[in-house]
Amino acid sequence: MLRRERPHVLLIPSTSRGRDYGPRAAGELELGMTGDCVDLGIDRAGRLIQFKPAYGGNIVSVIMGATTPQLATVRPRMFEPLDPRDGYGEVLHFAFERLPAPASRLIDRSADARAFDLDEADIVIAAGAGVGDGMDELRKVANELGAAVGGDQAARKAGLVGHARQLGLSGRAVAPRLYIAVETEGDFDHAAASVKAAVIAVFKSSSEPVTGTADIAIAGDWRETLPAFARALA
């Protein structure tokens, strides 16, 4: 499709699948591609301006591709939906040749392998290893708020969340309206998960200063403070 239609720009969702086939297409056609963009623009010359976080989200790099088509993967929820308006867009249907027989086969699939709710949720709760045996309580609060649950790298290593629900630089980034971190490490790896969250609330059992970015920091036993916080939001 890219060879035949030569579009000016091709944007791909930065999902687990998009992160896979986007670079493959770019490599096959020897095109440049920017992954995990958080914003986009078009300059006067018609070039795609791509904004990509770097150094764990501490800075945002501005990138312009030198090849056409210009390819980029874009993180979910980076843009607010536009209001409907009158207009017409041409829909093209493509018939592709049959794919070759796969060289691998599926052995098993985790029941939680697809964590799409993290990409779409307005509220995300991120668990740290300090949650320990309280995951059932955390999920109960999440159900009350209609929130999706993930965890940082330490929580994943502790078996509290699966690989698909790991948040951070080595996991997935999310962009909810409210990001609630409970007993997380607060390092740059985890901070990268919430770089586009509107509000970040951190819950820590210790009274030590909160490391990382936080709009709200609450000290005390999260088993008491988090349910009270959830009731206040209801």
Q: What is the CATH level 1 assignment of the largest domain?
A: Alpha Beta
Strand order of the largest sheet: 8-7-9-10-11
Q: How many β strands by DSSP?
A: 11
Number of domains: 2
Put simply, the count of helices is 7
Q: CATH homologous superfamily name of the largest domain? A: TPP-binding domain
Instruction: Outline the low-pLDDT stretches.
Output: none
Helical proportion?
Answer: 10-25%
Briefly note the structural class of the backbone. alpha/beta
What is the name of the CATH topology of the largest domain? Rossmann fold
Report the mean per-residue pLDDT as an integer.
85
Beta-strand percentage? 15-25%
Q: Terminal Cα separation, in Å?
A: 48 Å
How would you sum up the major sheet?
Answer: 5 strands, parallel
SSE ordering: HEHEEEEEHEHEHEHEEH
CATH architecture of the largest domain: 3-Layer(aba) Sandwich
- Shape field: globular
How large, in whole angstroms, is the Cα Rg?
20 Å
Short characterization:
This protein is of the alpha/beta class and 234 residues long. 22% of the residues lie in helices and 24% in strands. Strand 3 and strand 4 (48-54) form a beta hairpin.
Layout of secondary structure:
Layout: H1 2-5, E1 9-13, H2 18-28, E2 33-37, E3 39-42, E4 48-54, E5 59-64, E6 70-74, H3 117-120, E7 123-127, H4 135-145, E8 148-151, H5 153-157, E9 178-182, H6 188-191, E10 199-204, E11 216-219, H7 222-233
Parallel strand pairs: 1-6, 2-6, 7-8, 7-9, 9-10, 10-11
Antiparallel strand pairs: 3-4, 4-5
